[in-house]
Amino acid sequence: MLLFSMVENEKDLSKFQRIYDQYKNMMYWVAYDITKNTHDAEDVVQLSLIKLIDILYRIEEEEILPNIFISLQNLDTKT
Questions:
Q1: Cβ atoms < 10 Å from Cβ of 17
Q2: 52 with 68: CB under 8 angstroms?
Q3: CA separation for the pair 17, 33 (Å, rounded)
Q4: Helix H segments across the chain?
Q5: Considering the entire predicted model, what is its pTM?
């Protein structure tokens, strides 16, 4: 996946992989519930993951869930 190539170092890549594996399905279903559209939900998840990569170095994994929901909701208002 192209997103993994955007992560700058091994430590953050490992963190991103764990977060991605744990939350990707939940993120999609939350985004789909908000957008009611498969393509928009996929776009929202992808944009949320890109935003996550940008802040990955300063966020702890246990803080990730609230940030994911905020990101999904904020991006939905822009679709």
A1: 12
A2: yes
A3: 24
A4: 2-5, 10-35, 38-55, 64-76
A5: 0.77
Which residue carries 């246990």 as its tokens?
A: 62
Give the position of tokens 């993120």. Answer: 27
Predicted local distance difference test score (pLDDT) of residue 76:
59
Quick one: which of 22, 47, 21 has its CA closest to 34? 47
How many alpha carbons fall within 13 Å on the CB side of residue 71? 22
What is the sign of the dihedral through the CA atoms of 11, 16, 21 and 26? positive
With tokens 């890549």, the residue in question is 13
21-59, pLDDT tens digit by residue?
999 999 999 999 999 999 999 999 999 899 889 888 887
